[in-house]
Amino acid sequence: MERLIFDAHAHYDDDKFNDDREELLASLPEKGVFAAVTNGTDIATSQVSIDLAEKYDFLYAAVGIHPESTADTDVGRMDEYIEKIAAMLKNKKVVAIGETGLDYYWDIPKKEQHIIFERQLMLSKDVNMPIIIHDREAHGDTLEYLKKYQPYGLLHCYSGSAEMLKEVLRCGNMYISLGGTVTFKNARVPVEVAREVPIDRLLLETDAPYLAPVPFRGKRNDSSLIAHIAEKIGEIRGMSAEDVLRFTKENACRFYGLQ
Ligand code: NI
To answer: What is the tens place of the pLDDT at every residue in 146-185?
Structure first.
């Protein structure tokens, strides 16, 4: 089987994989997975992500602090955290800073979120490494940061409008990734985005273990299920699923600086 799946964003450190993580990860290449990027959400899980990536050839790591980790992050120690992330970025299996960003869905103090996100944006510019950005119900402020920093980044599980997408793509060197939500029955905006996004700016992701595509909605997600997302995007764009996988794999390799 030709390995065409590149999962641009997953969380294989998640507890939902505790029972069969090793077995599952070992099985993914034979299910067509070429590569996957597992993302840390704080310093500890970033290290776990690196440890996993070192164990599996196809697996790479992103390291950073997620907005949902804000309560456990002492912003007074940001210099120290940034130093730790910068040190982790030197590992050969680490391909990006992330996951970071803004989350206004949960009740998380905004001031602290902004400090944590902005410092990682600055680090990304300093070391010229891509950054994986989470934007949940924080489109306006996220766009302001994109305009200010012009990052080399991925807006993951993109949930904005097709209109906002145009503005996002005018900033720096930006890509977006789409996942299971595009297959959901009520998906209207993600379908429009899947149709409009320039094909060379699109990546596919799972956000595993979350957001499994139809017909696995509500179940645990893993990188092999990207085939269903490619199928749906192929339908929307009038392309074969295989071509969607080929283009998005090529884009992800370019984005993450891999062969
Ligand atoms: Ni995520």
So the answer is: 999 999 999 999 999 999 999 999 999 999 999 999 999 9
Q: What is the DSSP letter of 244?
A: H
Q: Which residues contact 51 (CB under 8 A, 6 or more apart)?
A: none
Question: What letter would DSSP give residue 225?
Answer: G
For residue 154, list its beta bridge partners. Answer: 132, 175
Distance (Å) from CA 210 to ligand 1 centroid:
8
CA 16–ligand 1 middle distance (angstroms): 14
**Cα(259) to centroid(ligand 1), Å:** 24
The pTM score is 0.97
Q: List the domains of the chain with CATH numbers.
A: 5-256 (3.20.20.140)
Q: Which residues pair with 37 in a beta bridge?
A: 60
Q: Work out the burial of residue 158: count CB atoms within 10 Å of its CB; fewer than 13 is exposed, 13-18 middle, 19 or more buried.
A: buried
Work out the pLDDT band at 94, boundaries 50, 70, 90.
very high
Instruction: Give CA–CA dist 29/36, Å, rounded.
Output: 10
- How far apart are the C-alpha atoms of 149 and 56, rounded to whole Å? 33
- Report which secondary-structure segment, H or E, holds 77: none
- Measured in Å, residue 205 CA sits from the centre of ligand 1 at 9
Tell me the residues surrounding ligand 1 (ion) with CB < 5 Å. 99, 207
